[in-house]
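Q: Given only this backbone (408 positions), what sequence would you predict?
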């Protein structure tokens, strides 16, 4: 995931916004120019001919508020000329000129995330509705909604969620766009530790999830929604309660995944709130697959950074918490004893090793196995071994190894 933060400027000012106020109001982040956009697209080989099923080479445009960029249409034109598709994250509070430009070029925008928070304040709703309906109707006339909802209402549940009554707010907003609400993308205010084991908040999210399902609205989660908001110590158990919890696949981090944000000043970070803390040069990377290399470098940087501060005891003892480095991966798995041995949560394992036998595979005990998973396991050799450690209850000081055999 690669985000082009083309400007830090935004006039909306959501209560939960993690963008620095100086960047948002005083424009200190500057603007990403067309030359720099082209440089990034060339270096990371964004090519419409190598699009994957996950559309990872779509160009994701964010801010701040991207439409407040002084040359927003010039940036979009540059991407369009390359035959690339665009994902736009916007507050949808732009004027008629920008609205008409987007509608006229709708075939180049694969999907959009309209920031839909706090529209019941500061007379925001009227303008937002005008733009949302125009773009929804443009999607209906071109792309259609069979393959994708196209428009995902982006809603952040803030830490003052009880006072803001998000459930009532979402019902109110849905009533303003009848028959035009296909999807909701739910996010959380990730600042502070109030989320840890916050089962009350989990119940609120489940209520929102049920409302979406009853009304045939697709609902998905943003980059990180910790599983500890729900009951269950395995992914399977949590999934029985919700589809919103995020789990880490492919990198050795904590619950959830994080995008790479590239800023106008040439800096980058893995997850905007970590700007200035976890950074890496986006150029001068080894290997042919620059994007994959950058993701791996950030994974290592994030882990190193996480080791510089004390983590809550609840997280260290959590069955979903991972830690590791580039040479050896350590998995904290909560085990429970059975008559015949031990069982533990299913976990996706991956390493940065180029050896075929070390490629990603699944460890699954007492869980249904889809065809895709079986196909992945068949690529593994019988010799694969994984280091993992018992939890404290079993008084094991040394990690043990478990061999994985191919399945038929």
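A: Predicted residues:
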């Amino acid at each position: 995931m690669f985000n082009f933060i083309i400007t830090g400027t935004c006039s909306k000012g959501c209560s939960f916004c993690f963008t620095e106020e100086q960047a948002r109001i005083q424009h200190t982040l500057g603007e990403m120019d067309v030359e720099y956009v082209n440089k990034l697209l060339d270096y990371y080989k964004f090519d419409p001919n190598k699009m994957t099923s996950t559309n990872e080479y779509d160009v994701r445009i964010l801010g701040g508020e991207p439409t407040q960029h002084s040359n927003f249409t010039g940036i979009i034109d540059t991407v369009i000329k390359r035959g690339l598709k665009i994902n736009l994250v916007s507050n949808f509070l732009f004027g008629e000129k920008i609205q008409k430009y987007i509608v006229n070029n709708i075939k180049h925008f694969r999907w959009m995330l309209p920031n839909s928070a706090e529209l019941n304040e500061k007379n925001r709703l009227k303008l937002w509705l005008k733009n949302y309906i125009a773009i929804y109707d443009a999607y209906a006339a071109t792309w259609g909604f069979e393959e994708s909802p196209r428009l995902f209402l982006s809603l952040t549940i803030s830490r003052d969620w009880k006072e803001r009554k998000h459930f009532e707010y979402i019902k109110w907003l849905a009533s303003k766009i009848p028959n035009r609400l296909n999807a909701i993308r739910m996010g959380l205010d990730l600042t502070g530790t109030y989320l840890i084991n916050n089962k009350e908040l989990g119940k609120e999210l489940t209520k929102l999830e049920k409302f979406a399902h009853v009304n045939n609205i697709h609902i998905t989660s943003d980059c990180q929604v910790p599983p500890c908001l729900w009951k269950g110590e395995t992914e399977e158990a949590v999934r029985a309660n919700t589809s919103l919890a995020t789990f880490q696949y492919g990198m050795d981090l904590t619950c959830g995944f994080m995008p790479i944000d590239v800023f106008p000043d040439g800096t980058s970070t893995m997850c905007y709130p970590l700007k200035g803390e976890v950074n890496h040069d986006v150029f001068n990377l080894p290997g042919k697959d620059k994007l994959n290399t950058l993701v791996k470098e950030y994974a290592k940087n994030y882990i190193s950074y996480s080791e510089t501060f004390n983590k809550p005891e609840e997280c260290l003892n959590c069955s979903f918490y991972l830690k590791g480095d580039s040479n050896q991966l350590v998995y904290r798995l909560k085990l429970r004893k059975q008559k015949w041995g031990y069982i533990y949560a299913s976990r996706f394992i991956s390493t940065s090793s180029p050896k075929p036998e070390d490629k990603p595979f699944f460890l699954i005990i007492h869980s249904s196995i889809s065809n895709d998973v079986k196909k992945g396991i068949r690529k593994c050799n019988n010799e694969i071994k994984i280091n993992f450690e018992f939890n404290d209850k079993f008084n094991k000081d040394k990690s043990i190894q478990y061999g994985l055999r191919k399945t038929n």
